[in-house]
Design goal:
Blueprint lengths: L7 E8 L4 H14 L14 E7 L4 E2 L8 H22 L11 E5 L4 E6 L2 E6 L3 E5 L7 E2 L5 E2 L16 H13 L1
Antiparallel strand pairs: 1-2, 3-4, 4-7, 5-6, 8-9
GO molecular function: histone H3T3 kinase activity
InterPro entries: Kinase-like_dom_sf
Pfam families: Haspin_kinase
Length: about 180
């Protein structure tokens, strides 16, 4: 058990033209941070979308200022513990973990608790909670043996990105795993 994945508030299937308000928000994000994704208005007017609403879980680690080494150690322990829980239960692999896919929020609790293989593991929070997000490239085994994953060979564009260390990592990963 871990509370360091975001809680899903709602999931909706929508069809139609991408809403202007969401395009405006996309543009604002792209101006401030530069998105590697296509602007969503490239899709036809009858496009289907899945809209997922998650609880607010803080700001990305790229933008968050850690106040102490203790907060850094807490963050590392929380993320590592969270991935260990998911790996134990689902044979989970994130496969796209970087600073933008870890959210950090201030909390009042003294600790964040995980349960790993029946063992309660309290992690001193030092005032922060880490949340792991973005499962688009993840791999996991579901009960019954079904494996969900993205076949990287089906999307060569994943290995063609430029301008960020994560794209170099993708290429290195591809070389190492052949």
């Amino acid at each position: 058990m871990t509370s360091n994945f975001p809680r899903v508030m709602s999931v909706n299937c929508i069809q139609g033209k991408y809403p202007k308000i969401l395009l405006d928000l996309w543009d604002k994000y792209h101006e401030e941070r530069v998105s590697q994704n296509d602007r969503p208005d490239i899709y036809p007017g009858k496009q289907f979308y899945i809209a997922m609403e998650f609880e607010y879980a803080g700001e990305d680690l790229e933008s968050f200022f850690l106040e102490s080494a203790c907060q850094g150690l807490s963050l590392l322990a929380q993320v590592s513990g969270t991935l260990a829980v998911a790996e134990s239960v689902l044979q989970y692999e994130h496969r796209d973990l970087h600073l933008g896919n870890i959210l950090v929020a201030p909390i009042d609790n003294d600790s964040v608790e995980l349960i790993l293989e029946g063992n309660l593991i309290p992690i001193p929070s030092h005032g922060i909670k880490a949340t792991v997000i973005d499962f688009g490239l993840a791999r996991m085994s579901l009960p019954g043996g079904k494996i969900l994953y993205v076949d990287f060979n089906s999307d060569p564009a994943l290995f063609e990105g430029k301008g960020d260390l994560q794209f170099d990592i993708y290429r290195l990963m591809k070389e190492q795993t052949k």
